[in-house]
């Protein structure tokens, strides 16, 4: 038999240790909602914090790699002879695969319990595809690598989030996911800046992709260190009654609310398109505005994550109201309003990306959490796709209609978040 010590299983000869621990855990860990914790590792806060920071650094280097690449894949495909239609289809297919696969990878992680294995393979597929773009000699080969990059991201995310959610309860899930998202956004900001610098100095797409091998290697080395240091950050065995075997009504209502936010949240390419065609923001200022919004998102993730631990989902309702103001600002013709709008846009991105993941961990038991994260990401991504397509159509009809649609759909989610926050 085995007992738990820290993050690891520690084998013990004989049954004295485990029989004493088992009886103590059963008597001491009776939980409400029909859940009994039979085993749960004792993690001190410093170990939990270190694990969250390590995985945040992994995400920082990962985002430097794939977001740096995404900033130039469009013109790179064009240089290889791809048409605008080809670029659109490749991007759409990548996003479809990137969100659709998460449902299956999340279910697989729950069924097998191989959270680390799935996470590591996902990162390898996600990252190795990027520097290989430097070797692509036609747009079809590049397209395959781009889709593989999104597939790898889809494979790793649910399993990684399960591990984070389990460790995060020791320091506050909102704070933990906030720190993780903040580091993620730092990578998303610095990757494109690195590529922009290489393009400015050398003007070579292939060299830019090749240079991204360095953050890729740093990411995989950090991931390997995290795996060796914390081999089992997910070891919790829960015995539930049958009522907990299905996702709760609270989860489904929460999923509906977050999907409304996704439908109403304008993707940045459309915002950048508006800046360009109206000249409300100079071309050189568009990436600067985006970088500023990513910095705001990082700060927002930390602040709202901390407040989520104290006040629950009411914080998400407040963040949604605040971020809804981005549309009237960015879709005007005034550069100062556009800058303010990007601040609001960044606030919403940071708050949503951190709190939305943290909230799922509060609603779903451990061995269903991979599926829950996969389902959430799949539906959220599909809702985002529908909203982006719909608002692109509305933009051609009337910018005013787009603004009204964006604000209204987001605000409809607010009372749903409040209701979910009051549900048990």
From TrEMBL:
GO terms for cellular component: plasma membrane. The chain crosses the membrane at residues 76-100, 120-148, 209-230, 251-276, 288-308, 315-337, 343-360, 372-395, 401-420. It comes from the Bacteria. Pfam families: MFS_1 (PF07690). It is a multi-pass membrane protein. Keywords: Cell membrane, Membrane, Transmembrane, Transmembrane helix, Transport. It is found in: Cell membrane. SUPFAM superfamilies: MFS general substrate transporter (SSF103473). Residues 49-424 form the Major facilitator superfamily (MFS) profile domain. Coiled coil: none annotated. Gene3D superfamilies: MFS general substrate transporter like domains. InterPro entries: MFS, MFS_dom, MFS_trans_sf, Uncharacterized_MFS-type. Its main location: membrane. The keyword Cell membrane applies. This is Major Facilitator Superfamily protein. It comes from Propionispora vibrioides.
């Amino acid at each position: 038999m085995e007992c738990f010590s820290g993050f690891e299983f520690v084998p013990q000869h004989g049954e004295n240790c485990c029989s004493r621990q088992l009886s103590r855990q059963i008597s001491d860990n009776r939980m409400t909602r029909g859940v009994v914790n039979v085993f749960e590792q004792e993690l001190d806060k410093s170990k939990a914090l270190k694990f969250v920071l390590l995985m945040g650094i992994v995400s920082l280097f990962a985002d430097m790699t794939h977001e740096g690449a995404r900033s130039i894949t469009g013109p790179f495909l064009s240089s290889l002879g791809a048409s605008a239609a080809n670029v659109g289809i490749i991007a759409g297919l990548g996003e479809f695969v990137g969100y659709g696969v998460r449902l299956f990878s999340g279910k697989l992680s729950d069924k097998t319990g191989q959270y680390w294995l799935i996470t590591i393979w996902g990162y390898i597929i996600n990252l190795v595809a990027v520097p290989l773009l430097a070797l692509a000699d036609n747009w079809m080969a590049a397209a395959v690598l781009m889709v593989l990059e999104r597939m790898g991201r889809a494979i790793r995310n649910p399993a990684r989030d399960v591990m984070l959610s389990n460790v995060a309860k020791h320091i506050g899930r909102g704070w933990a996911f906030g720190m993780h998202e903040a580091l993620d956004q730092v990578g998303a900001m610095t990757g494109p800046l690195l590529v922009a610098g290489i393009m400015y100095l050398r003007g070579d797409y292939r060299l830019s992709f090749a240079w991204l091998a360095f953050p890729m290697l740093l990411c995989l080395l950090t991931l390997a260190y995290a795996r060796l240091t914390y081999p089992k950050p997910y070891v919790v065995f829960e015995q539930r009654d049958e009522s907990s075997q299905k996702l709760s009504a609270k989860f489904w209502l929460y999923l509906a609310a977050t999907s409304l936010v996704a439908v109403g949240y304008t993707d940045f390419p459309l915002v950048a398109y508006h800046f360009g065609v109206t000249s409300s923001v100079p071309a050189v200022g568009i990436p600067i505005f985006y970088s500023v919004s990513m910095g705001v998102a990082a700060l927002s993730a930390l602040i709202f994550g901390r407040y989520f631990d104290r006040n629950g989902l009411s914080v998400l309702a407040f963040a949604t109201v605040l971020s809804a103001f981005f549309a009237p600002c960015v879709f005007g013709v005034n550069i100062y309003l556009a800058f303010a709008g990007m601040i609001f846009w960044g606030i919403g991105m940071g708050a949503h990306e951190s709190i939305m993941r943290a909230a799922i961990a509060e609603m779903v038991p451990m061995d269903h959490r991979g599926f829950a994260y996969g389902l959430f990401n799949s539906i959220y991504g599909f809702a985002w796709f529908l909203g982006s397509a719909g608002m692109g159509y509305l933009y051609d009809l009337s910018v005013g209609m787009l603004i009204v649609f964006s604000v209204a759909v987001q605000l409809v989610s607010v009372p749903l978040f409040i209701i979910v926050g009051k549900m048990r």
